Amino acid sequence: MAVATALPRLLPRRGHNLAWHPSWKRTPARLSHGQRRTESSKASPEPNDNDTQAQGEAIPVPNTIATTPLWQRLGPLTRAAESYGRSQRKRPYWTQFCTTLVIYLCADISAQSMGGEEYAPERTGRSFMIGALSSIPSYKWFIFLSQNFNYGSRMLSLGVKVAINQAFFTPLFNSYFFGMQALLAGEGLGQVAERIRRTVPTSVVNSCKLWPAVTAFSFTFIPMEYRSVFAGVIAVGWQTYLSFLNRRAEEAEAAEAKVEVDESPVEGVLVSTPTRPRTLPRTHNRTRRHASNSSSSSSSSSSSSTSKATDSLLVARAKTVLYGSAIAGSVYLAYLYATDTRASFHRWLVPPLIRAFFPDAEDAHHAGTTALKTLYALGLHPRERDASLASDPALAVEVFGTTLSNPIGISAGLDKHADIPDPLFALGPAVVEVGGCTPFPQEGNPRPRVFRVVGLHGMVNRFGLNSRGADAMARTLRERLRIFARSLGLSESQVLDGEAGVNPGSLAPGKLLAVQMAKNKRTDERDVHAVAADYVYCVRALARYADILVVNVSSPNTPGLRDLQAVGPLTTLLSAVVDEARKTDRKTKPKVMVKVSPDEDEDMQMEGIVQAVCASGVDGVIVGNTTKRRTGVVPDGVKLTSREQKALMEEGGYSGPAMFDRTLDLVSRYRKMLDARTLHHSAAGEAPASGEKQAAARDDPEQKVIFATGGITNGEQALRVLNAGASVAMVYTGLTYGGSGTITRMKGEMKKALSNV
């Protein structure tokens, strides 16, 4: 009865997990207008009793009814604008690229029509090239401008933004615009520089007549997704106006030149006087005309050949510049595509090629790790370019006091030595787990020790926790931290204490770095204190550089390791790790989680683990690891080749999609057990007899966090484990078969599923 009474009081205080699960189960991601109004009214402050009695039910009056903006009442135009806004949010770069091409096309057609000359398609081609190369940098500049220089005073913010835009972007863009115009027209570098010198100062001065007001209006009234269109329309109008002024100036100059030609004397052509002018007047006339024609034809022939030579040179230069620009543009577009995790070849081409070139799975693993590390150093690594997924509030979740950008993580094993945490974060997860790491270096089991089961998209491994040792991993993580600190002009201790505004492990906002630890193979698992000393050694070396410390007691490839999941040894071990983690020399201490086996699935075994977790003060559980079992792994109707059957029967831990149902069941059961024990201890005020620290941890009503790993390969499965009680869904084998776009694809599937609720 005490538990039931305490339940309503405890649930509202646990924001990071219990608030998450109902939001996925029962709260639609997209509410109707009436639902939003109801929800907002619930969240708003309650009126006092006197107001309620005096006013009764509130009566809407014109002053209290929000008016619908004009642009939302334009019928088809409104729908078109909303469609464009959705496209801009979903694929900002492609939408911006296409928008820029349309704007430059309109501006060029307007300018040419005002010029009064015959339409020149090559000029339009130059405009397309100039717009294509500048579209993404310009977009990024204005994103940067909108996200920075924001102060308490709106007028100060707008003034600084306008001043910076006029001082930096306008001269740079005008130099690029006029320089590219000259370059694509075939002019030499000297002529290009001269044209920039003559035109840019005047253009910058002229831009001050209009663009400060446009910039201020855009940042004040125009939503982010429509600013490019708004600025483009103004630019087309401005270009048309300038072309009109140029046309008038040219017509005035032509009229003045015509008057000067009409008033100047005509110079005659000197010819020899014939000896018999009277008898040969016609011959004389013909001779004079012939001489005159010969002279003019000779002159015109010479000028024509010179003109043709000049034209040929200009055409050759123009072609060279045009082809070079086209190649440069193509390379840039190829770079954007190849480094985008949404690119289909990351899924359908790269994984099969890796399997073809590296028959041994461990060789493929090392090749992939080396490739990611090298590409990241060169800035050519795959990354999540979909800004709408990277910062979608619908996918955000709070874990350990950090608001994660999404609930997807990468399990340990992919980055065993912490060589590539940053390239892995670039793929889109909010949590990356590196390791496992042992106190001292060890080779692991003999090779071959990794085997693919391609027909099941599964894998069997018996690495045996090969590790370079805790000290080596600590050096790697510390060097990474120092490079980050130097880039910000901060010290190492300032970054560790959070002064950089990021978590000290992930070094990125909205992300967490987990470091997995394990005992050395040679340490006797029967000596619990020796085993605890192994883990404590790892904590002392690595805790400063981790957001989460993961205690691995579930690897099937280290003899006796899973025996540590019994209540007594596990409580002793976890308590030692928690105590040492709390001594970490930094402002915020790392959280501690324990990784448990999927094979320990009997109620008694799970209850023992839960008891140890709650007694030791561990912050959470990672449910799942590879399994020794092979029953139920092969679905009905799936036939494996003899090679795949042999690989499946190899000794070691199996991972793959067939593990999902077991993971889902375990997450649900662990969630219920952990919540029941936490609520029971909080309501009864019980304390274990193992010490004051453990008592304080056990009395803490904070709900234990669960990460789920095992068989999760798509967004629908991720949602199911989240609904079952996990805070983060982790992937590993699915990433090796699905390629570097797996996490982006999963988040897109989750977002789509939520929007259809």
UniProtKB/TrEMBL annotation:
- Composition-biased stretches (Basic residues): 279-291
- List, alphabetically, the CDD domains matched: DHOD_2_like
| Dihydroorotate dehydrogenase catalytic domain mapped to chain residues | 395-675, 705-754
Q: What is its main location?
A: membrane
Annotated Gene Ontology MF terms? dihydroorotate dehydrogenase activity
Taken from the UniProt entry, a GO cellular component term is: mitochondrial inner membrane
Q: Does this entry carry the keyword Cell membrane?
A: no
Q: Indicate the secretion signal residues.
A: none
PANTHER family this protein is in? DIHYDROOROTATE DEHYDROGENASE (QUINONE), MITOCHONDRIAL, DIHYDROOROTATE DEHYDROGENASE (QUINONE), MITOCHONDRIAL-RELATED
Name of the protein this chain belongs to: FMN-linked oxidoreductase
Q: Which organism is it from?
A: Sodiomyces alkalinus (strain CBS 110278 / VKM F-3762 / F11) (Alkaliphilic filamentous fungus)
